[in-house]
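Appendix B. One record, verbatim.
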Amino acid sequence: MAGGPQTYIVGGAKVPSRYLAVGSLLAWVGLYKLATAGGNKAEAPVAQQIKTLDKDEGDFVSKFMAELEKDDKAKAH
């Protein structure tokens, strides 16, 4: 029983246990990075989105928003 390090047979090859341990740790770190990556991108403000629209679409949205504000002011009084 006085041999070298513990080994396992994986895919027909002897693999030292320390390689399995390091591989497991790297796999967990990789999965953590994948799970927490992305999603931090902030959306552009509405005003910026309106500016990027075509002129006709931007005018329509601006007029629509102005009408909504008028309706809100009328309801408030």
